[in-house]
Amino acid sequence: MGTIDIHTHAVPKGWPDLSTQVGPGPWPSLRVDSEREAMIMVGSREFRRIEENCWSAEARLAEMDADDVDIQVVSPTPVFFSYEKPGDEAAKVARIFNDLTLEICSPAPDRLLPFAQVPLQDTDAACAELDRAIAAGHRGVEIGNHVGDRDLDHEGIVTFLQHCADRGVPVLVHPWDMPDSPRLDRWMARWLTGMPAETHLSIIAMILGGVFDRVPPTLRIGFAHGGGSFAFWLGRFENAWHRRPDVVGVSELPPTGYLDRFSVDSVVFDPAALRLLVDTLGAEQVMLGSDYPYPLGERPVGAVIDRADFLTDEQKAAIRHGNARRFLAL
To answer: The whole model's pTM is what?
Structure first.
């Protein structure tokens, strides 16, 4: 009954030249700088430096053992989503990276659980790739929190979420493609402020867009990065729903009526923030996540839970593994 990390990422060490396999464009590529280090490139632009723990099962397992992590959910790195591309091209990219992720996880199938990506901009293609990936061995799907200006309440995305519910496939929502501006391009502000805001906005869209009213409660959906700023501003959201129903009150229930319909991860770093999540959503809606192996992730994994002296032993066990077992249907 050991620790399950619901939020980690992988990057394959090698993939084919996407400009020849898929179509022209500034596709991601990997500049291998040494046996243990590489740089993700987007066209000619450096995007992110990574290390072998992104692609090496051996390196991942060694660090999991060091942090007493028994199971990782291994999800795509969002830069590969390709939502801005035509659906057929994004479907080819998803197939390539999903198959490579299975290879990364294959040395330890009981400990490394792969989550797929899909061409979310094309509903039919997304459903088809989900079915193919699950049949091939994927255990769930990671999606970005929006497709251009389409949020999670867009008709096509709702149809995809209904498909996930019908198939019993868990969904992890990850923020991505944050707006940039001169103010946000300093100090990693897109990651420090944009990611929490994007996730918060998407949960609002699920509620006010009527998604939770339309998809069955069997949908297992979780939001990365502690649900962003949602828990902190729930009171403001609730107040607006009641006081401005002419603008806000379009869901069947007030926002607090949907708190048992989704989960969040624990990668909030500070016990006070974790306490807010538990007080707001309930300990049964929080799952351990780390954002491993990236530098803004948590190491040692689960440290914020260890430091949370307000949690009972039962609550810590639920956050460390019990809730994830339910989410993953283990």
So the answer is: 0.96
Structural domains of the chain, ranges and CATH numbers in brackets: 3-8+70-328 (3.20.20.140)
What tokens does 273 get? 């923030």
User: Residue 282's pLDDT is what?
Assistant: 98
The pLDDT of residue 97: 97
State whether residue 38 is helix, strand or coil.
strand
Cis peptide before 24 (omega within 30 of 0): no
> Which residues of the chain have a pLDDT value below 70?
1
Collect all residues with Cβ–Cβ distance below 8 Å to 186 and sequence separation of at least 6: none
Phi/psi region, residue 283 (left: phi>0; alpha: psi -120 to 50; beta: rest), is alpha
From the list 198, 70, 77, the residue with the least C-alpha distance to 145 is 198
Q: Which residues contact 324 (CB under 8 A, 6 or more apart)?
A: 4, 6, 71, 73, 287, 288, 330
- Report residue 272 CA to chain centroid gap: 23
**Quick one: pLDDT at residue 187?**
87
> Six-digit token pair at 9?
């990422």
**pLDDT score for 330:** 94
CA 225/CA 125 separation, integer angstroms: 28
Neighbouring C-beta atoms of residue 323, cutoff 10 Å: 25
CA distance to 2, 20, 180, 215, per residue, from 81 (Å): 31, 18, 18, 24
* pLDDT tens-digit series, residues 14-57: 899 999 999 988 899 999 999 899 999 998 889 999 999 999 99
Q: Which two tokens stand for residue 264?
A: 């969040």
**Could you tell me the CA-to-CA distances from 249 to 113, 161, 208, 318 in Å, in that order?**
39, 23, 7, 33
**Pairing of β 263-265 and β 45-51:** unpaired
pLDDT, residue 184, reads: 83
Q: What is the pLDDT of residue 1?
A: 65
